[in-house]
Amino acid sequence: MPTEPAVVFVHGMRTSSSIWVPQLAHLHGAGYDAVAVDLPAHGERRDERFTLPRAFEVIDEAIGSFGAHRRVALVGLSLGGYTTLAYAAREASLAQAGVLGHPGRLTGVVAAACCSDPKGKPVALFRDVARVTVTGATAAGQAAHSATTRWRAALAGRGTRAGGSDVAALLGGAAAVGPYRPGWEVVTDALTHLAGRSSVADLRATRVPVWLVNGSRDHLRLEEQRHLAAAYQGALVVVPGAGHDVNSDAPEAFNRVLIRALHDFSRP
């Protein structure tokens, strides 16, 4: 039985599994088993609506594809990062309750570009931007400007500067996603599900190592030290020069970090 974990990649908002092509090629070349999933409302699952329970089912299916007893690591970016942290917290809860299933198979999580706790006003603001965007471009532009102004004010209150790309970064990365790009309604659905959760609370609940990976230019790494402190066994890596789409902005550096994390997860 292989000692290294198999890997499931989970993409960000309004992208697809295609963003992980460089990482899949790198891991396959290094002898790892790895797959990338499409979340509901994205890629091959474009006809579904995003819900967190359905996203968990997608991850369950991917983990099951490696067999009944194979240990698995999760790698998530942005929305995928928040989703994998929530999944890991759920697995820990099920394991504590003695529920049969996947608990015990998860060996670690690499959570990238998700070190701003989605619980609170900023997520609600962006959700409102997305909701208005669906209804009309002019109103959307006004709402986006208003929400961005309020977002920057919120960050200023935390002593953090925000750039003009923050809305685009949270609502959907710039990485290539192939011929299909989900509409704005998926943002409303996804942020509605995230708004009631805390990524910090999810980290506190996990019982596996978590590597937090951020690009140095990502304006959404607001609370990375708070997230690191909450992790059961945590590590923080900041990739110089990379933005929110850290795996696409600096694929070679991200791949090196990924291999290091998987080696860490393989330890007894």
Reconstruct the topology from this structure.
Blueprint lengths: L5 E5 L10 H9 L4 E4 L14 H13 L7 E6 L1 H18 L9 E7 L8 H15 L1 H21 L8 H6 L13 H11 L3 H7 L3 E7 L8 H7 L2 E7 L6 H4 L1 H16 L2
Helix pairs in contact: 1-11, 3-8, 4-5, 4-7, 8-9
Strand content: 5-15%
Q: Based on CA inertia axes, which overall geometry fits?
A: globular
Instruction: Let me know the CATH homologous superfamily of the largest domain.
Output: Alpha/Beta hydrolase fold, catalytic domain
Please summarize the sheet with the most strands: 6 strands, parallel
CATH class bucket of the largest domain: Alpha Beta
Task: For the largest sheet, list the strands in their spatial order.
Answer: 2-1-3-4-5-6
Terminus-to-terminus distance: 15 Å
**Got a strand count?**
6
Tally of helical segments: 11
Helical/strand content category = alpha/beta
Please explain how this structure is put together.
This protein has helices spanning 21-29, 52-64, 79-96, 121-135, 137-157, 166-171, 185-195, 199-205, 224-230, 246-249, 251-266; strands at 6-10, 34-37, 72-77, 106-112, 209-215, 233-239. 47% of the residues lie in helices and 13% in strands. It has a 6-stranded parallel β-sheet with strand order 2-1-3-4-5-6, with helices on both faces. It contains 11 helices and 6 strands. The protein has 268 residues and is an alpha/beta fold. It has 2 domains: 6-117 and 198-266, Alpha/Beta hydrolase fold, catalytic domain (Rossmann fold, 3-Layer(aba) Sandwich); 121-190, no CATH class. Helix 1 links the parallel strand 1 and strand 2.
